[in-house]
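Technical appendix A lists one of the benchmark inputs used to test multi-chain prediction within the project. The record comprises three sequence entries:
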Amino acid sequence: MTLSPGLHAFLGQLINGLTVGSFYALIALGYTMVYGVLSMVNFAHGDIFMVGAYCGLFTIGRLQSIGYLETNPVLAIVVTFVVGMLGASLTGVLVERLAYRPVRRAGRLAALISAIGASIILQESVRLVPTIFKAILDIKIGSHNLFPDAFISGLLNLAKDFGGSAAKTYPAILGTGGFTLAGVFISYGRVLIVVLSLIIMLALYLLVQYTRIGRAMRAVSEDKDTASLMGVNVNRTISTTFFIGSALAGIAGVMVGLFYLQIRVDMGFVPGIKAFTSAVLGGIGNIPGAMLGGYILGLVEVLSVQVLPAVYKDVVAFVILILTLIFMPNGLLGNRKFLKKL
Amino acid sequence: MTMIQNFIAVYARKRWLKWVVLALLAAALLAMPLLPIPQKNLWVRILGYAGLYILLGLGLLIHVGFAGMLDLGFAAYYGIGAYTYALLASRQFDIHLPFWVMLLVGGLVAALAGALISIPVLRLRGDYLAIVTLGFGEITRLLLLNLKGLTNGSQGVIGIDKPVLFGVVFNTGTHFYYLIFLLILLFTFLTNRLIQSRIGRAWLAIREDEDVAEMSGVNTIWYKLLAFVLGAFIGGLGGVVFASWQGSIFPDNFNLLVSINVLCLIILGGLGNQYGVIVGALALIALPDMLRGFSDFRMLIFGLLLVVMMILKPNGFLPRVPPRLEKAADGKIKPQEDRA
Amino acid sequence: MKSRLILTLFVALTLLVSGCSPAATAAPATGVLPTDTPGSTSASTSIPADPWGNIVIPPGQSVKVGLSSALAGGYAVYGTDMLNGVDLAIEKFGGSLHGWTLTSEGQDDGCEGAAGVTVAEQFSADPNILGVIGPMCSGSIVPAEDIYAANHVVMITPSGTAVAVTAQGYETVFRTVPNDDLQAQVTVDYLTKELGLTSIAIIDDQSIYGEGLATAVKQKFEAAGGTVTSFEGINRGESDYSAVVSTSMTGSPQGVYFGGMDAEGMKLVVQFRAANFSGVFFGPDGIKSQPSFADAAGAAAEGAYMTFGAVGGAAGYDDFLAAFKAKFGGDPVAYGPGSYDATLILLQAADRVATVDANGNLVIGRKALADSIRATPFTGVTGHLEFDQSGDLKVVSISVFQVKGGIITPLKEYNFGQ
């Protein structure tokens, strides 16, 4: 079946949009869930996405160096996802505990500034990992190193995969293979991302709708104090929310690493803003809204290239953000949260 | 902290002593570039640059501290002012308008931008306002980056003219040091007047509780707009100075980090206090110099400072400057007759 | 609240006074050259006056070779490589100049204009800087060279290839690489004559370097009778270039030319191959990096072409390579050998013109240094390096390379100026 060039290009862009949309949707869910329970914008969420990517890099780097990546690529990738996810979720819980919980009563402004601080801390910590390692390993007793030399060089090499200011690269394990559908080439990598994302999002939706944890989350987001009175452990629910939201961001981080290959410590900012835009677009606090917003933004962004020069992609996202906040603050699917004055 | 407050209280009573110390400090700062200090040029530059940030801080203070609007996109005004000057006073289009005129023009163009940006956001509050201003800041940077025919994009505008005053060309750091010093004095004075005026009282009312202010008859929309415009003006002015000092500017000079830096320095100092801005800027610039060995960790410490400050002292180290209430002849506080 | 002002200013001044040496903070230029450290007596009458002033290093202080390159971020692979080259050269030179210790000081300019200017100001205000190797990227050089020239600081770049770099005619600017007009010429020659392509799409990274190259390639390719099906710019630092990939592929070009660096080149080649593009991928010296282009892109990089000022085959290269590997644990990436040569050129020139004055200070005339560099031919690991009046090399050679079996392999050499 041969398509006209226009339709061909459009379908190709559709696939691209779905891929990019998956990333935005996964990260947006974290924003929306946290906003739901805490009414705060987690400015550091983009950096949690970054931490997930680096944890994944570390894992896949180790697996590659012991040859496991060659022999068991599928299992290796699964392990990478798990570690990336866990790294991100633990970081998220830590951030909540240390930077957000103490300022909960101090007002919106304080929470936002604390979030900015947390974002900077995360970025810098990852960037400084090799430096810190080197500083520790350089500890000397008298004129001899505290640690054995082989240990030092081995650990330094390890640390390089964990952070540093230079951009880092994932092994190109996904390859460039793919299949052709209706004359449009679809790579396996894209399929993996879209399918995996949809599965995860479905799992999340089921969790929130049908489990006790989910019910607790919905209760806390509805009314924190009443939920507490009804016996819900608010603090633990909030921590769980952060855990899950950050896990999703972590998975997105590993996906980005596997797909685009290059990660940097400042990679969280732009996707973070775009994911936030998606969450707002769908209705912040609203889980299906975040998913919908993510895909819409992904598609709009990719299709905007047909009318605008490609370099204006980011401007499109910001403009959508602003327009939504001004004209449609409740988002597409509505948002009970926003009806309260902030 | 109370020990210091007692110290200040004692100090405060002897007014003449305050003025002496003030004069001494001002004299020291003024004389510094003329003294034979080692590595003087570096110091002149560092203090001058801190001064530029103080100037920006004064502008942002109007947004955040006085009118209570968290602005995360202040670098936009800085950039607009800078590019306005750069495009009209460099080899880019071979137009060469004079600096002193452009100081005002740059500020006004930025103020106009502030007005335009503020109109849609005046109804928003809290973190939504913050995010929208962040969005505008980034859009400005991206437009500067991508409107290549106008701004030369990532390649920047180079060969920007220096100011000329009575035949003297400002081509050393010392020239700009004094210029910035004067501008800081001027704007500290002006903003002080502003706080003490009706406008300042209206801002205080809006900051404390916007709904109550609205109900008391304060035209909140108008005053918030005014705050935006004035703050943006100062930002734009700062941009003109920066462009002429550095001689070349790039979109990357006006990124989110700049906005965050300015925000952080006024937070460190205390959100309602111009002098806090000075503390913040000097801490931001002087501290890294002292921690020379740890300069790599500067941003990390920065972030930690932000979080710790919000946990411990969300209102900053120095308290806000409340407007003076009027007192009647008998020393009792006069009720306000005019509507703020 | 004047009392608070007093307190804050008092505290601030105390901080400042107690702070020792000011660190590298971003601040605009002085324009005033800090030639002599105030407090030390000026050069005695036996030292010839230099029209640009002197570098004066008191005894016990070190002589610094500055390096302006991307030491962090997306292009750090190149910057670190350059720093290694500088360090190895200092070691080869003996580690000291007339008894004064030599050290390197690398500052990160991120391959950007803004940071390049900041670093230029820092180096220009540092009285111990002998000269600067770099800046790495043409986009940093063009704004920074104004500052280096105003302060009479010599800069030798082993990687800045844009024509604009020497266009201003500054006497302080030198480069040990060919310019991009020649690089574009070689590219088009190879595309048309060796590969027989008649249509290409062009992408650039919107930097002075990338855009300059892309424009030059476009002009020359069209002049040779070829068709350029699209000419698009990208923003550096992004991840997803699927849009520009799609746009470039409509029109079915036989090849794609990318004017830019390794980080973007790697992402582009991966995304082109992932979009099932089977045509030629051609890039400039900016993508010639085994680790960050060929290895990083994996199978996608196979068959990609690139040009580069020829390296290797010069006498002494093998020894250099062995020493480099021994000291840094890996091969040089791209500009390491060039930085090595550039540093030696600087140090040897300094060696020739340096004198010690009556106070025991090391004195180097700035103009004398620049003139000595320009007047003295140098044979290094990157070949025979001799500068003309504008700081460009008189004789250059450019080679075309290809990724074959995952390794960047030279194919054909072009020589100019011989």
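The CA atoms of residues 32 and 136 of chain C lie 25 Å apart. The mean pLDDT of chain C is 85. Comparable benchmark entries are summarised in Table A2.
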